[in-house]
Amino acid sequence: MTETSWTRKDLLALEDLSKEEIELILKTAESFKEVSAREVKKVPALRGKSIANLFFEASTRTRTSFEVAAKRLSADTINFSSSGSSTSKGESLSDTAKNIEAMQVDTIVMRHSSSGSAEYLSKVVKAGVINAGDGIHEHPTQGLLDIFTIKEKKKNITGLKVCLIGDILHSRVARSNIWGLTKLGAKVTVCGPPTLIPRGIEKLGVSVEYDVDKAIKDQDVLNILRIQLERQAGAFFPSIREYAAEYGISVDRMKKAKSDVIIMHPGPINRGVELAAEVADGANSVILEQVTNGIAVRMAVLFLTTMVER
Ligand code: CP
């Protein structure tokens, strides 16, 4: 597949993409990564195009990463947040988005607390829609940047053992990782308290392990997920202290993992809960490389989707 055969104006979910489409995004991201290492960190690929960031939920990494990515492609960027926009006065999502589109915006990057909101928006606007996280559904660019980082470190995804640990039930990052990694042939295990593992998740092609000490043995990648207290995850286990003892990745627990295992986390980290500070900052951690790679991956996604004829 080549850039010219890409046909999607939207990126809503990794569930929707073929293996070839995922590989094209990763290949395009590889070529854009070098731009951020230049003294002048800019290419004219999206000059004259406008990208709007529409964030209805808190974000540090994703919002700034999309803004940096758009600017490195020479696009104009517009930032909306729910607190400063007319949605706080009762305006519907559709009206807000149509008003933004009326300003000749080419692509809307949206984060929203409702699962399915990005797909809904893609049907009511002609502009492209990039899902920056919709409820507990998907966070496709996080999944892609995780896969990009794994590929960079481990070269081949096929046959690689990847374990997602933590709150799988509420995690859009887990769902995007599962769809993307299984399409590329990785062997994915999910691990967490039984209350935070969705029933029937094996149908997505993953294995389930409730004992973290067993789960982390022989894995090539441990992707540690945040305990999402804002989505009532705290009600699903007795206490934060117990969660940290049973599932937290501590220095001691790391001794059971392979010496070359890579430690990933989408951020923001609850240090001392799902991940010990020494492990987050340790030699196996690629957490900040994930953030760096996020820019290249989002440049690729913005470029491919924004250049599609509407
Ligand atoms: N990984 C991630 O989505 O982080 P933010 O919530 O800071 O955007």
Outline the structure in words.
This protein folds into two domains: 3-139 and 291-306, Rossmann fold; 141-288, Rossmann fold, CATH 3.40.50.1370. The radius of gyration is 19 Å and the shape is globular. The chain has 310 residues and is an alpha/beta fold. Strands 7-6-5-8-9 form a five-stranded parallel β-sheet. Strands 2-1-3-4 form a four-stranded parallel β-sheet, sandwiched between helices. The longest helix has 20 residues, at 287-306. It has eleven helices and nine strands. 36% of the residues lie in helices and 15% in strands. It has helices at residues 19-33, 61-72, 93-101, 117-124, 140-154, 172-183, 212-215, 240-247, 251-254, 277-280, 287-306, and strands spanning 50-55, 76-81, 107-112, 128-134, 161-165, 187-191, 207-209, 221-224, 262-264. The structure holds phosphoric acid mono(formamide)ester.
What topology emerges from the helices and strands here?
Elements: H1 19-33, E1 50-55, H2 61-72, E2 76-81, H3 93-101, E3 107-112, H4 117-124, E4 128-134, H5 140-154, E5 161-165, H6 172-183, E6 187-191, E7 207-209, H7 212-215, E8 221-224, H8 240-247, H9 251-254, E9 262-264, H10 277-280, H11 287-306
Parallel strand pairs: 1-2, 1-3, 3-4, 5-6, 5-8, 6-7, 8-9
This protein binds phosphoric acid mono(formamide)ester (CP).
Residues 59-62, 133, 139, 142, 266-268 line the site of phosphoric acid mono(formamide)ester.
Structure keywords:
2 domains; Rossmann fold; alpha/beta; 36% helix; 310 residues; binds phosphoric acid mono(formamide)ester
